[in-house]
Amino acid sequence: MTTINSKQLSSLNLLYTDTKKYTLNLFEKKFKNQFKNIFFSNTVEKALEIFITNQPDIVVVDSSISDRYGIEIIEQIRIMNKQVPIILVTNFFQKEVVVSALKIGVNNFFEKPVDLNILVETIKDHAKLINIDKFVKEQKDQEIKELKKIEKYKSYQENIAFQKELKIMKNDFDPFVREFNEQAIFVNTYYKPLDTLSGDAYTVRDIGHGQIFILIADGMGKGLSASLSAMNAVMFANYLIDAKKIFNLKKIVENTMTYISAILLEEEALCLNFTHLNIIDNKMEYAKFSMPATLLIDNSGDIIKVPSNNPPLSIYTKDFKIDSYDVSSTLKFLFYSDGVIENTTKNGGVYQDQLLKDFQESFTEHELHNKFTESIFQQEDDVTFVMLNRLNLSKKTLDRKIFNTTTEDVQTAGEWFENILIKKNFSEELLNRYSIAFNELYMNAYEHGNLSINTKEKHKLIAEGTYMDQLNKLSIGNDKKIEVTIREIKYLNHHYIYTTITDEGNGFDTDILKDVYKGTKRYNGRGVYMSKRNTLGVYYSKRANSVSFLIKIV
Amino acid sequence: MNILMQDDITHITGNIKSINDFEKIQLALEKQIKTHKKIKLFFIDSLSITSSVIGYLNKLVQGDKIDLELFVSNKSLIELLKDLKLTDVFKVKLIK
Predict the structure, then answer these.
(1) What is the pTM of this model?
(2) If I label A85, which of A65, A198, A375, B32 is the partner at 20 to 30 A Cα–Cα?
């Protein structure tokens, strides 16, 4: 138990107000050395000024002379501070004063003539409580300080760990498009962990020759353990593909199972979706361990659900099953974790009830994840989408034109593109957004592609003020061409425009885009960033001398 | 796109989107910075900006040490400039 002593009292500041000078002097003489500071005032104004400036721990008010003097001080102090103890020294005959004081929160009363020793004992009682409060507050502040320190460290570590996770997960298709037999394939991912250390992980690998490997792992349970299992599964599959050059689905699953089983805890289970797609042979092979159904949409708009064919992976798993599905008529594929379908929606259901409809109506992953985020109040679990689109490009050409490598043709190409959009009745805002996307990407094809000016040189030329001159100079005698193909693609009731710009350069340095998409402060690639922002997606060919972008005709 | 200039103030009306727009802006501002080290640039109604114009304005601020204030009326354009971390560099202000 805390006891009062002179040391505790000596840490307090006291405000003593009285209009009689001799009372003030008497109090000062008797108790001056017992308190840290005693502030005296004989007017309302001075008392309030002292209160604001010095924040006393206790206030003693003597109101026996003036009717409103004491009450006014107390009222004003209580407006500013509801906690500070206030002791009123008054005359019992002033009943009106006492009643008013009670209403506004005076802590103690003393009748005159007051015994100063008793008054000080009361002050000591308050001091005891004040010191306990101070002690508790100091303890709390110290705890908060410690927690902040730990939190800061934790947050730093989590941030580093998350950066590492993003490095482990791969999407070989971002920001690329692959074209096979008049088909364009692009794969987009949406990955939003609930905690920094996610229980979800994915990888999308371009094996070549129209073959794609997709793995989504979802650790059952939450926290670091689930995250480690999911990340390890993805990391190991990437290792098999990159280092061991194993592309066979059965071997990838077998090896990953052996590796992961060894690190799983007794009660742990891991949901996995291993999928191998062969776009040329139109075959999808899969080994799915308790993952939500893969959704496919065929060319008549119908949805096909491909359920899991294995229970979750655990240390008890001995074998597994691989099945295959003919995807010759499939236009869209959706692979996802259970966090998507189990999320509560704004209308009180779960997103599973809406997913099929939203997937059917969404042409791109961008449209789908927007629908998802609009449907929910808040995200409740880790969320991963992998969406693959397959566009049939044959007989869809709206217009095609070849341009020369000149600044005049940069302008002409922009006007030509805009005129095509005008015929499609785009609003002025969309017309502007899409023109910007076209102009930026076309300009890249012109300056970085056919004129081989790299970004560093471009900045230098702009800084020197010779950029335009240099473009014109390099254009003289340059016989390289830029080909633009505009295709109109119908999907359900909507029409989309897929524009491809191909130059004859050595290929755009797509490495700079990794930073662009993460919102870097660097200047490089801002044109591509703006194009991506203004369209449904921007995709490069493998050599990156060809870029395509997708827009929707509303 | 049209440009109107007076003293240290440049008003640009219409959308900024092509290489010609970039050339016009560059030409106008190059003249202006010969006599003014502090300039006020107004994008009266443009919905967008091109990367070449961004590059050029960046060069004016960082390279030529021009004190630029950019007044923009379109909120989406302000958002874009925020995303590109350019609002401080170009001292971007919203025209109400």
Answers:
(1) 0.67
(2) A65
Q: Which residues, 6 or more positions from A294, have their beta carbon under 8 angstroms from its beta carbon?
A: A273, A275, A286, A288, A305, A306, A333, A334, A335
- On whether the CB atoms of residues A545 and A533 are closer than 8 A, the answer is no
Quick check: A469 contacting B, CB < 8 Å?
no
Is the N-terminal amide bond of A113 cis, ω within 30° of 0? Answer: yes
CB contact under 8 A, B48 and A530: yes
Distance CA A251, CA A134 (A): 67
Query: Do B58 and A436 make contact, defined as CB atoms within 8 angstroms?
Result: no
Structural domains in chain A, CATH included, are 6-136 (3.40.50.2300), 169-391 (3.60.40.10), 397-553 (3.30.565.10)
Total domains in the fold of chain B: 1
Q: Is the peptide bond before A175 cis (omega within 30 degrees of 0)?
A: yes
Å between B54 CA and nearest CA of chain A: 9
3-state secondary structure of A454: coil
Residue from A296, A300, A308 nearest A356 by CA: A296
Identify the helix (H) or strand (E) that includes residue A53: helix A44-54
pLDDT tens sequence across A178-211: 888 888 898 999 998 887 777 899 999 999 889 9
pLDDT digits (tens, 9 = 90+) for A433-455: 999 999 999 999 999 999 999 88
Which residues is A192 bridged to in the sheet?
A: A383
pLDDT digits (tens, 9 = 90+) for A25-34: 777 777 778 8
pLDDT tens digits, one per residue of A514-524: 655 444 344 46
A462 to chain B nearest CA, in Å?
6
Tell me, what CATH number does B27's domain have? 3.30.750.24
Report chain A residues whose CB lies below 8 A from the CB of B20: 411
A526 and B84 within 8 Å at the Cβ level: the answer is yes
Residue A527 to residue B63, Cβ atoms within 8 A: no
